[in-house]
Amino acid sequence: MDVCWGIHAGKTGDADSLFLDKKSPCIAIGWDAMGNLSNIENDREAFKKKLIEAYPDTKKGAINTVAGMPFRFKYEMQIGDYVVYPSVADRMVYIGKVTGDYEYKPEKSKSYCNMRSVEWIKSVPRTSVSQGALYEIGSALSLFQVKNYVDDILMFLDVNISANNGEAAIESDDNTIDDIFANVEETTSDFIFKKLFTELKGFAFEPFVAHILNIIGYNTRVTKKSGDGGIDIVAFKDELGIEPPIIKVQVKCVEGAIGAPAVQALYGNVEVGEYGLFITLGDFTKQAMDFAKIKTNLRLMDGQEFVNIILKNYEKLDSKYKAIIPLKNVYIPTQIENAY
Questions:
Q1: Per residue in 64-112, pLDDT tens?
Q2: DSSP letter string over 101-146?
Q3: What is the rounded distance in angstroms from the CA atom of residue 286 to the CA atom of residue 6?
Q4: What is a GO molecular function of this protein (predicted)?
Q5: CA distances (Å), 192 to each of 186, 187, 188, 249, 263, in order?
Q6: Which of 9, 78, 202, 229 has minimal CB crowding within 10 Å?
């Protein structure tokens, strides 16, 4: 039976470049202090014992879950299994297959020395993946088996698995508060991105951006839909819009990366004493960011930063936009010290 694993490259995507290396793509996990996992017998209790030796500060209630991840990576994962990796670096979801046995390679990565080679078959934007699947692959665990939304993931490869199979994924109530919050925050961001792409695509995105700029303290004027020279919004601090600095804003409701030519075109319309601001729901190429770095009056804002501003100021949104992006307050537990 086919199995699909989910994996993360660290909380902030530390191992993203390792996973997506063009010459030797792989998946990897940490626990470097446990050494070569091949030296630990195929037994969960042996992994628990080694974990406690290597990481004596591990909370008692987390030992089963934490030790289970390197155990499963070494002994349960098999060549031919599917793997899904949601990248926090480019907001893409990578789907592939495990192509190699377990290898211990501290010379390649000290922090992520436990590796398996993979073939990445397809990558899709997070906005193309169902909300349920995004929630499942956003697990706080570094390694887990995808169970409930396997079909939603593998449909991008024209693969269908209609029934759950294999051992149930190991879950734990001991996820740290930071992990829980990060998972909720990421899932909420995914929801907002989807709503922006589906409900405010095209010209409707421009007045929404202007509204956000109004909320954070700017007066704005949305330009005409044509003949605007690439300038979608003009922002200013005074009510009349005659006092410097004037900010010329271009917005893009796209998922891909904005290149240097588009950024340079915007900057070409920025006069002396003015500022340029480029806002996109996607991100920017390295060349675009390098160009902006040398321009003191040019600012780039990618999709994640823009969504963070929405979250920070959500209560101030106009009711019509709250209806498009419906959110509500939730409560999560606070950290309890010395729980074990």
A1: 999 999 999 999 999 999 999 999 888 899 999 999 999 999 999 999 9
A2: --EE-TTT-STT-EEEEEEEEEEEEGGGS-HHHHHHHT-SSSEEE-
A3: 28
A4: restriction endodeoxyribonuclease activity
A5: 10, 9, 6, 21, 25
A6: 202
Q: Note whether 239 and 284 are within 8 A (CB).
A: no
Q: How far apart are CA 336 and CA 6, in angstroms?
A: 29
Q: Please, which pLDDT band fits residue 164 given cuts at 50, 70 and 90?
A: very low
Which stretches does DSSP call E strand in the chain? 4-7, 26-29, 82-86, 92-98, 103-104, 114-125, 143-145, 219-222, 233-236, 247-252, 257-258, 275-280, 283-284, 298-301
Tokens linked to 142: 């570094």
Domains of the chain are 4-175 (no CATH), 200-324 (3.40.1350.10)
Give CB contacts under 8 A, 24+ apart, made by 159-167. 159/2, 159/82, 161/1, 161/2, 161/4, 165/1, 165/2, 165/3, 166/1, 166/3, 167/76
Nearest to 233 by CA among 288, 277, 270, 264: 277
- Strand 103-104 relative to strand 114-125: parallel, antiparallel, unpaired? antiparallel
Q: What are phi and psi of 261, to 5 degrees?
A: -55, -40
- Whether the pLDDT of residue 217 is over 70: the answer is yes
| 273-291 pLDDT per residue, tens | 999 999 999 999 999 999 9
- CA nearest neighbour of 233 among 255, 208, 257: 208
Contact 259, 288 (CB under 8 A): yes
Distance between CA atoms of residues 305 and 91, nearest Å: 13
Show the CA angle centred on residue 72, arms to residues 68 and 77, nearest 5°: 165
Give the separation between CA 322 and CA 128, rounded to whole angstroms: 22
Cα 101 from Cα 74, distance rounded (Å): 8
Q: What is the pTM of this model?
A: 0.71
Cα–Cα distance measured from residue 189 to residue 139, given in angstroms and rounded to the nearest whole number: 15
Angle in degrees, 0-180, between the axes of helices 303-312 and 177-199, rounded to the nearest 10: 100
**How far is 108 from 338, CA to CA, in rounded Å?**
37
